[in-house]
Amino acid sequence: MADQNHELRRAGLKVTLPRVKILQILESSTGDHLSAEDVYKALLDAGEDVGLATVYRVLTQFETAGLVVRHNFDGGHAVFEMSHEEHHDHMVCLESGQIIEFFDDQIERRQQEIVEEHGYELVDHALVLYVRPKGSRATRQEGVKKS
Fold first, then answer.
1. At what angle do helices 17-28 and 2-10 cross, to 10 degrees?
2. Is a pLDDT exceeding 80 seen at residue 13?
3. What is the rounded distance in angstroms from the CA atom of residue 80 to the CA atom of residue 101?
4. What are phi and psi of 28, to 5 degrees?
């Protein structure tokens, strides 16, 4: 809990029990991208008395403070992950909703080249690939429609 207290103070946030509990849940999610509802459910499962409105408010505060990153992958449904110092991109499976993180040197290099070819400087970027398993029913149906 001391680590979370330090992290909150470093981000300029007052240490409160809801903030500490929410930060613990996010840190223990290990690569998962959690919605506010996921965090709320985890709090309920842990016997914590924190309201959904508080979860939304704290997640917004964490985002503003740079502790978490908000993603709106599919249909505007927001999910959160802890901020990482190292850059990564995402694949979102359209069938399962699974979010896969990846990094590829060639993609990063090519994006930089494209930006420079157009006379710009890359400030930030986010790459999201929407995928489905090969051979899945939806993929076969799309293939039929294209014929």
1. 100
2. yes
3. 13
4. -85, -5
pLDDT tens, 60-116?
Answer: 999 999 999 999 887 667 999 988 778 899 999 988 888 898 999 999 999 999 999
How far apart (Å, rounded) are the C-alpha atoms in residues 30 and 47?
21
Residue 118 above 80 pLDDT? yes
The DSSP letter of residue 91 is E
DSSP for 31-89, please give it. T--B-HHHHHHHHHHTT----HHHHHHHHHHHHHHTSEEEEE-STT-EEEEE--SS--E
3-state SS assignment for residue 82: strand
End-to-end CA distance of the chain: 59
pTM: 0.74
- Contact partners, residue 36, CB within 8 Å, separation at least 6: 52, 55, 56, 59, 78, 80
Q: If we measure between CA atoms, which residue out of 125, 103, 130, 102 comes closest to residue 114? A: 125
Distance CA 51, CA 55 (A): 6
Q: Which pLDDT value is given to residue 147?
A: 42
